[in-house]
Design brief:
Shape: globular
Structural class: mainly beta
Distance between the termini: 53 Å
Helix content: under 10%
Largest sheet: 5 strands, antiparallel
Mean pLDDT: 86
Strand content: 35-45%
Low-confidence stretches: 1-22, 511-530
Number of helices: 4
């Protein structure tokens, strides 16, 4: 990473000294309007959705100025806005724009997020609709993040734009789904919509009132739309194995021959900055350029470990699988991939992975097989292929600069203003929160506060608000999960003020019961699927989950430990690592507590074998003599 030469003004010198000295680099206040703070209680019974929404001010972050105790939509949304200079591809005046939500009264509302003196925020009805059901917001990235609402009104599907007022009727959608907006040139006013018509099974260019639409390409579903190229009129659609470049300014399309078959699976494709990346069935990673229509192989040779594309930086593709991270050059010049993390029984990665401009942020973990302690590293992989790591730390969040270069080629769209890093972490991820200058990622930033057992994995549990994390005079809100009882709370902190951490919510974990659902969000997948836990299937091939069964560990001294269930539908199980006290036999119990399957003996070597899914893998070959997945037969 190239470190800048810093010339400090008197104000910056004061801010620097106000930090903690040494290699501390305190942040300098950003220009821009004050914004209200938005937070809510995370409801684990509602798949991690937010309830009891609140807006507060910097003066009193814990005092609610706007309250919505319940909402008809699981995730209220935030929109942003900025000004764009096409000559330099730079943005400025990035700001929080509005909060969008649907109340239990069936009406859509917006709240302007910018503070106007001491005036309290006011919820304004967004359209004349009053009977909305099945609401769903679609984020369209155009000069910020615009939020469009699709819902059912009077039995019909309708579209509500973010600019509508209380007197505006929603637009009938019929069988159409919004994909994006259209415009004659990036930065110019919106003149229509890119839609998917489920009846015609076509991607269409439509007028703003949707009364006039023109077919562009055939598509199986709205999921065939892969996204826009920021700063241009281009979009991409992948349909029936063919890639199409769409020009939204005139509705034209060009087919681009891939020449390869895309491997089936989640995360095998990624679209960023005018390039479409995909993992092919031949075990190679490819890049297709929308402008030149070229197809370039990025891997020097086939690699069966390629299953997912995890992140994109300006120069690198981070790919691999759930148990592997490796970096490959975007231009295809990698002689060999750079291996960043490879899981073992006691090492791996399970937390943050994000491409921010030139850099890739990730967090490996290590399990001490003797003590059972889990430790983390906050690592950064840089443009030149080097990596730096800080022990007993992990990345929690990125806050955006209000002005900078729009990052069209990396996962994160803006220049970073601040990283939030947790240092001196305990095994759950609790520790000391610090505001870090991105130019000095390993330095000792401003200490914001300490809290035990809470994991500020905001890229995961607060992923819906990652791009909208813009400070208000330093103030931000992050969500954190407590790994001792699986609930999530909201926290306020000021990136410019030491010891500013305040807990905003205190959810009650006692009533938590996942119930008959596939997933329980709001905390990391590791709680269900990884070390000190695993998953039960009906057969060794892992073809179907085995609901209602449990796992019991039997130790050599004759004692037994029943694993916790009710994470998901109950096929997942976990337990505190500290309760694994030596070599054990794993026993599968049915609903009546009767043993239906068990391991051959006490061959699992204590805490070092706590990550059951590592050896009993469903994908690929099981490891360390494991016969297959944990199963009921």
């Amino acid at each position: 990473m190239n470190r800048p030469v810093v010339i400090l003004s008197s104000l910056a010198v004061s801010a620097f000294i106000a930090g903690c000295g040494g290699d501390t680099h305190a942040l300098v206040k950003q220009d821009g309007p004050k914004s209200f703070l938005f937070f809510g209680e995370v409801d684990p019974e509602g798949l991690g959705s937010l309830k009891n929404m609140r807006l507060s001010s910097l003066k009193e972050p814990t005092k609610a100025l706007v309250k919505e105790d319940t909402s008809a939509i699981r995730y209220p949304t935030l929109s942003t806005s900025f000004e764009y200079d096409p000559a330099t591809k730079s943005y400025s005046k990035l700001a929080l724009d509005k909060l969008h939500y649907v109340g239990t009264d069936g009406k859509a509302y917006t709240v302007t997020m910018t503070q106007q003196g001491d005036a309290a925020p006011t919820a304004v009805q967004n359209s004349s609709a009053s009977d909305l059901t099945k609401p769903s917001y679609k984020k369209v990235r155009y000069l910020g993040s615009r939020q469009y609402l699709m819902a059912t009104s009077g039995g019909d599907k309708v579209l509500i734009t973010p600019d509508m007022g209380a007197g505006d009727a929603p637009i009938p959608l019929g069988k159409k789904t919004l994909l994006s907006v259209t415009f004659p040139q990036y930065g110019k006013p919106i003149n229509g919509y890119l839609m998917y018509d489920a009846t015609a099974k076509k991607v269409q260019k439509c007028a703003t009132n949707l009364t006039s639409c023109t077919d562009i390409v055939a598509a199986r579903s709205s999921r065939d739309f892969k996204g826009d190229v920021a700063g241009t009129t281009y979009s991409a659609v992948l349909s029936n194995g063919k890639l199409y470049r769409i020009d939204k300014s005139n509705g034209s399309s060009v087919e681009i021959a891939l020449g390869k078959t895309i491997k089936k699976g989640h995360g095998t494709t990624s679209f960023k900055g005018g390039a479409f990346y995909f993992v092919a069935t031949d075990g190679n990673l490819y890049k297709t350029d929308l402008s030149t229509k070229s197809v370039v192989k990025l891997t020097p040779r086939a690699d069966e470990r390629l299953e997912r594309i995890r992140a994109v930086t300006s120069d690198w593709i981070i790919a691999g699988s759930d148990t592997l991270l490796m970096a490959l050059k975007k231009d295809g010049t990698s002689t060999d991939p750079i291996e960043l993390v490879k899981n073992t029984k006691t090492n791996g990665y399970k937390y943050v992975t994000l491409g921010v401009g030139d850099n890739f942020l990730y967090v490996p973990y290590t399990l001490d097989a003797t003590s059972g302690k889990v430790s983390y590293q906050a690592c950064i992989f840089e443009k030149d292929g080097k990596k730096e790591c800080k022990d007993n730390s992990f990345w929690a969040a990125v806050a955006a600069k209000r002005s900078g270069k729009l990052s069209v080629t990396s996962s994160y769209p803006y220049e970073p203003y601040a990283y939030v890093r947790v240092d001196d972490t305990d095994m759950f991820g609790g520790g000391t929160l610090k505001a870090i200058d991105p130019d000095y990622p390993m330095a000792d930033g401003t200490e914001l506060g300490k809290i035990a057992d809470y994991n500020f994995q905001t890229f995961i549990s607060g992923y819906r608000y990652t791009e909208e994390l813009i400070d208000s005079e330093g103030g931000i809100v992050l969500y954190a999960k407590n790994d001792t009882n699986f609930h999530v709370d909201a926290f306020y902190m000021n990136l410019l003020q030491a010891n500013s951490l305040k807990q905003l919510t205190n959810t009650d974990p006692k009533g938590f019961n996942a119930g008959p659902r596939d997933h329980c969000h709001g905390r990391h997948c590791m709680i269900c699927h990884s070390f000190a836990g695993g998953k039960i299937y009906t057969d060794l091939n892992g073809s179907k989950s085995a609901y209602g069964y449990r796992i019991q560990l039997e130790f050599k001294d004759g004692t037994k430990q029943l694993a916790d269930i009710s994470k998901g539908k109950g096929e997942n199980f976990s337990m505190p690592i500290a309760k694994i006290k030596g070599n054990f036999k794993a026993i599968v119990l049915d609903k009546n507590g009767e043993a239906v399957n068990h391991s051959a003996g006490y061959y699992h070597g204590g805490k070092g074998f706590a990550d059951c899914n590592y050896c009993h893998a469903r994908g690929g070959k099981p490891l360390n003599d494991a016969p297959g997945t944990i199963s009921i037969q």
